[in-house]
Amino acid sequence: MPLSLWLSLVAICAVGAMSPGPSLALVLRHTLGGGRLPGVVAALSHALGVGLYALLTVWGLGALIARQPLLFQFITWAGAAYLAWLGIKALRAGRTAAFEPNAVLTTGPQAAREGMLVALGNPKLILFFVALLSQFVSPEMSVAAKALIVLTAMIIDGGWYVIVAVALSHSRVLPWLQARAHWVNRITGVLLIAIALRVVVG
After folding, report:
1. TM segments (predicted)?
2. How many CA atoms, within 13 angstroms, populate the side-chain half-sphere of residue 196?
3. Which residue in 59, 75, 175, 190 has a CA-CA distance of 20 to 30 Å to 199?
4. Domain tally for the chain?
């Protein structure tokens, strides 16, 4: 893969990872609920989900999904339903999630499961890979070039959200966020439900 093309891929993946959405809300929620480790676990499992989508894209399944409107619609609506469910769960948490210092209200396995599911069920990611990442794949592309696309998407996504989890879990930042956790939950819940509604309406 030419360097200029790879740099374009890096830029697109970075913009996609850094844009606010359900993935950021997920890492924030697990960092607040359990500290640095669950936040990092959520970030890394999210990156695995991104890697799976990237792998399917280089295998040509992204283009196949794009040619199957009903399948594409089903995937996006299922993702929207999952995001809405997470949003409702965050809203219902209310003030009960105004955590005490060092309280552990989320676990590593829970963070890993939700990290993967949010990645796989995020309509924004589905659109990103079908519409954008598939443009970097050509039939004559080598296996090494395809592997580079998958690794680039995974490393950028995982690296960004690990940085977010580590920054949020800093000893000065985390207590401030935990004291306002009920507001974070409400904002997160509204954001997730709004994204789900936008997908359904749009």
Report:
1. 41-63, 70-88, 115-136, 148-171, 183-201
2. 20
3. 59
4. 1
Distance between CA atoms of 54 and 156, rounded to whole angstroms? Answer: 12
Residue 93 has pLDDT above 70, yes or no: no
Residue 69 in tokens: 């409107």
Residue 173 lies in a domain: yes
Q: What is the pTM of this model?
A: 0.69
Tell me whether residue 30 is in a domain. yes
For 104, phi then psi, to 5°, come to: -115, 100
Contact 127, 16 (CB under 8 A): no
Measuring CA to CA, how many Å separate 146 from each of 29, 50, 67, 133, 166? 33, 14, 21, 11, 30
State the residue for tokens 């299922």: 78
In 94-142, which residue ranges form alpha helices assigned H by DSSP?
108-121, 123-131
CA–CA separation, 82 and 48 (whole Å): 18
**Token representation of residue 110:** 């829970």
Domain membership flag for residue 197: no
Q: What percent of the chain has pLDDT over 90?
A: 12
Residue 128, both tokens: 């990103």
Q: How far apart are the first and last CA of the chain?
A: 35
